[in-house]
Design brief:
Elements lengths: L5 E2 L11 E5 L3 E6 L8 E4 H9 L2
Pfam families: DUF397 (PF04149)
Organism: Streptomyces daliensis
Protein name: DUF397 domain-containing protein
């Protein structure tokens, strides 16, 4: 587990479509890395795991 923001491996090399995630003990925060002033959305760890394993 990390408390650092991690950029999606699906983000393009031109940095124009980036999503970042931050894993916390009870939730995962997701944000747009191009505009970090917009609040992140929070999802449960279970929902995040289900999402990323379906890709």
């Amino acid at each position: 587990m990390t408390s650092e923001w991690q950029k999606s491996s699906y983000s393009g090399s031109s940095n124009d479509a980036c999503v970042e995630a931050k894993r916390l003990p009870a939730e995962v925060l997701v944000r747009d890395s191009k505009d970090t002033d917009i609040p992140a959305i929070s999802v449960s760890r279970a929902a995040w795991t289900a999402f990323v394993t379906k890709l």
